[in-house]
Request: fold
Amino acid sequence: MSFAKTKHAVEEGDTVIIYVNPQAMYAIQVKPLIATKKGDMVENIFQTAYGALKVQELVGKKFGHKVQFSRGWGYLLHPTPELWTLNLLHRTQILYTPDISLIVMQLDLKAGSIVVESGTGSGSLSHAIIRAIAPTGHLHTFDFHQQRVEIVTKEFIDHGLETFVTAKQRDACKDGFDLEDTADAVFLDLPNPWLAISHAVKALKNSGGRICTFSPCIEQTQKTCEALVAKGFKCIETMECLQREFQVKNITLPDVDDYNFSFSQTTDKDSEGNGKKEGRKFRALLPALQMAGHTGYLTFATWPRQSSVQI
Amino acid sequence: MDVNLILNDHFVLVQRKSQMSLHQLPKKEGKQWTIKVGRDLVDLSSALGKPHGTFKLSRNEENKSKAFSLVPSNDVVELKEKLKDLNSGENNKEIWDDGKSQQLKKEDIEELRGQGLTGSEIVTQLVENSKTFQIKTEFSQEKYLSKKEEKYSEWVEILKPNIRHLAKYFHSQDPMQILNLRPDTLAMIMSLANIKSNGKFGVFDGGCQGLVTAAILDRIQGFGTVWNLCLKGISQKRVIQAMNFSPEQLKPLKNANLHKVKESLKKEENGDGDEVPAAKIIKLDEDAPQPLELGSLDGLVVLCRRPNAIAKELVRLLAPSGNFVIFCPYSEPLCETYTDFRECNLAVNLKLTEAWFRLHQVLPLRTHPEVNMSGSGGYILSGIKVVS
Reply:
């Protein structure tokens, strides 16, 4: 429930984020009982590295405050699409926040926008789209995999978002979206997006709209751009974005004697910071040694207002 | 009043190929407004009352004005289509760039302009007077014609300003005017601050012309509150004006002078706030603006060159589990802020990041990343406020 509305305290049924550290965060639905693998219902106890947490005891607890485990503590955080993206159960490869934020902005999404998405995948982007278009917009999302549609539908209901989204099973490339003159924006994350371009055009409003395709491979991007040009899309742009993360560390340089040398005759012994530890300390901004180097190419284009539309 | 029409007093973006400029139409109806598009004079007011879209630069035979007037058009002709039947070569083996391929001089071209030749006609003349055009490869010819269209295209787009266009426009004009806030970094800020309808957000804009405030107002379309937090009287608002927001879209925007907020919070603390005059009690109804209080915001965005002391203070306005984003064009001040927040246990999920962004040229047999790219788009420190 807590995705749709900002709450100060937990209510039963809410999905919450338990934060231990940046690498240890968990999305939990607050219910008294949970099903085991065998299907038996048992008391909902969540295990962390710092001990157990009785999930039902979270009801009434305040977001942003500490939560106790049997051998330590963590923080109870309000869910956001960003936290959901980092903690959801992957059924497919998902999109992460840098691509998601660029997609939402470049598609001109705002409250009231009608959006078509295919494929839904694990619903990572879907949550961010719903946040942008609520309360007056709607997301029509499609995936050709029946189980994925069922899982994501349940998630939307659990998260209190079902009024803003319709999830359907459909093969977009073959059967289209069954929508006409409806969407402000269409997003395609498919192996062959060029096969869905005509269907996208049909779904888009005749007064104009935006399209985005996400493709890991350049060949897919090339084929898609050719299809977009042929169909009459304008302002076709292909881009990619990544995020570089930094650590902030206090660094102490080694003793200057290791590097004490000069070509001149006299060695300068009175140089600043010579031997003093304080002079060798500085605060460094360290980029991560490894970073994500590629996710996919994002292609955006504008479907212009059709001449049939009178203003 | 249909906002899809070009109206008096409204802002529009005028685009010819890749060149864009922002203009405001005159407030007074009937007043002529001439702008420069490249080296051409264009009567922008001739587009008034028409829907945004593609316009052709036309010479008005009756009106002997030097300025082109704008006529709605759907028949854009690309020069590469018009001139595709010309010969082309295999490679550049015989081509030597000595600057003498073009036989028309600058003065000759000016004369052609003066004679009233259209852009397409001038380019055709340039092609005919080029010694090397017909031995260039087809790709090279296309590139040459594209380049000429930047200057001579007869069509312009008159666009309704939106955040995507304005963010790119302001950043390309003069990045430091908006603290080098690149559009993809702006997109990240919108996500990391959890911008959504029916939320309460605060923005401290230390020099971004109101770009982030405008982006939030555009996203929430009247649902929610955006506090414009300021210390001095001067408000950053150029982008907000350029968006042509309606009164409904501007409703969420509230100005909060932080010194005054501090005073009213002190009064409440000292119990002075309890003595509300009878007249004021009657006025308080559901529509009365809620005052800004500590711990009340869902999201906070701070944009400035020196976030150090101010960011920590402004985070006090955030509710627990609220999201904040601090943007700075330089990384060093953010290192200080990061360390400060860490030591005071103010937040979790603290991340200091930089966005990397590149455009690609995708054309048949000519696909490659663009030759130029942005080297930097500012730095972000994001996190979630907690109560320790």
Notes: The mean pLDDT of chain B is 90. The two ends of chain B are 52 Å apart (CA to CA).
